[in-house]
Structure formats: structure tokens, C-alpha cells
Amino acid sequence: MGSCEVVSGRGGLPTVKIENDAATAEISLMGGHLISYIPKKDSEMIFVSPATRYVKGVPIRGGAPICWPWFGKHPDGGDKPMHGFARQLMWEFGGVKSACANCTAVTLTLKSSDETKAFWPYDFELELEVVVADKLTMTLKTTNTDSRAFTISQAIHTYFLISDISAITILGFEDKDYFNKVGGANDLRHNDGMIRINGEIDGVYKHAPGPFQILDPKAGRTIHVATAGSDSAVCWNPWIEKSKTLSDYTPDAYKTMVCVETCNALEDARTIQPGESHAMTAIYSIEK
Ligand code: TA6
Q: How many angstroms separate the Cα of 93 from the Cα of each of 26, 96, 274?
């Protein structure tokens, strides 16, 4: 039947540790932040910076950051946290939703409070469902419990562990327009073919629901990304110079990570009416 327990994990943070016949996973309650997924038939799929500190209030560098209720800088500018506040607050463990020998489904929740209203004035319930099996399925569900409609932008900002950034190929972004953020360009460009990375890449791709593939021949595997409830995606690697500006990162980290992020970003932001919900899902699997 496997196991699921909340333990004192990395940095002493409360962490949901899951093991079953198909895989193991770790999810920190700080930020509702998945930090490990290891399928029994393969090896770690998730990158976490060796320099990340695992302290309350500081977003973990790596894993699958939950960027919510805004992606990127706060729409109004100011000093509100980059990528929203969900990834720096403590979430509640919602329990085991279902479990069998090779599959465990858990939920974590973040509800509006005085703490959240210091950042964002609305009442909400945010639920992350994580299904750990031979695939990893992450569903982020926003429920508007306010009397006013609100608009969110969001991302499951997953850092994938790869063998060598110069040796991978990323599919699924062909023939897409994208908002290019490299060097602050913030211009609209078009991507024609498959993505090979030989410098900083930071694009928000439009009408990009996936599926995506990260082909990693040196690791002898392909990571598949499928989505639901999303029509935009980010491909990001900071390369050498941007790496120097990142917190809790190391100079060589860019060589073994790439982010393929499932988003509702830019024009794909979602307005949720009172009493309504919106769910965004990312499904990860490894093909040998
Ligand atoms: O999704 C890519 C991105 O927006 C980059 O521009 C970079 O800022 C990255 O997210 C990491 O952001 P963070 O706030 O975690 O340092």
C-alpha cells in the first residue's frame, strides 16, 4: 500500500514523504513545494539547487515552485514578491485522497488569511493535488470564495534534472509566438523549430498547451510533459550571466537543469467568478 507521512524534512521543514511500488516523492509544506520525484524504474526527475536554504518564507530554488496568484512581477509593480506569495507561505496537509500499491494521491491547501491579504485582498482556497505513481500529476485548483471576481496568473514552475544542457532537445514549442524576457527585451518573437539551448532562454510561449518533451540522450531518457487547463508555457534556463543574479543558485547549476513550466500567463490569465474554480494540471512521465 505504500507509505505517506509528514516528517521533519530538509531544513527541518514539515515535509510530506510518499513511497509506493511505483515511486517516491517529497513535498515541503513550505510553499506547497514538490522537491523530489523518483520513479522506481528510473532516477530523480527534479532539480533542486545545492545552495537552497529550506527556510520558512524563502522560496526553495528548484523543485516545482507554485507561482500564484501572479506569474512574474506583480501586475501593479511595487515590492510584492516575484511569482506571487504561495511559494513562501506554509500550506496545510490535506491528507491522503487515495492510495493503492503503486499510486498515492495527496492534497495540500492554502486558504486566504490575514497573512495572504497583506499581499492580495481576496478570499480564496488553493488546493494542490499531487498523484505519485509511474507518472507524477500535479493539479493546482483555485476556488474563489470571495464575493468579487478575481484574475490570477500562475505557473507550476518545474525544474527538471537533466544530464547536460547542451545535449538536450525540447519539443512542443514549435511554431509558437513567445514573449521573450532575455535581458529585459520583453519583445514578441516567433519560435520555428525544436529548442536547443546554447545561451539564456526565457520565453512565455502563447497557445502552448503542450505536450512537451525533454529529450536527454546522455541520460538515456525523455521527460514528457502534458497539461490541462493551460494554454501557455515557459521554457527557461538562466545560463551563465543570469545565474550570477539568482538567489540560492550555484555557477554550474544551469548545466543540469531546465524549466518547462505549465502556466496561465499573460493573455492566458484566468478570471474566476465568485464560487467558481479553475484547475491547471501538469502530468510528468519518463520514457527510457
Ligand atoms: O519562469 C522564468 C522566470 O520568470 C525567470 O525570468 C526567472 O526570474 C525565474 O522565473 C526564476 O524566478 P525566481 O523568482 O524564482 O528567481
A: 13, 9, 25
Phi-psi region of 171 (alpha: psi -120 to 50; beta: other; left: phi over 0): beta
Contact 131, 228 (CB under 8 A): no
Give the predicted TM-score (pTM) of the model. Answer: 0.98
CA of 72 to the centre of ligand 1 (A): 7
Pocket flag, ligand 1, residue 29 (CB < 6 Å): no
- Nearest residue to 229 (alpha-carbon basis) of 271, 279, 172, 273: 279
Residue nearest to atom 13 of ligand 1 (CA): 82
pLDDT digit string (tens) for the chain, length 288 residues: 689 999 999 999 999 999 999 999 999 999 999 999 999 999 999 999 999 999 999 999 999 999 999 999 998 878 899 999 999 999 999 999 988 999 999 999 999 999 999 999 999 999 999 999 999 999 999 999 999 999 999 999 999 999 999 999 999 999 999 999 999 999 999 999 999 999 999 999 999 999 999 999 999 999 999 999 999 999 999 999 999 999 999 999 999 999 999 999 999 999 999 999 999 999 999 999
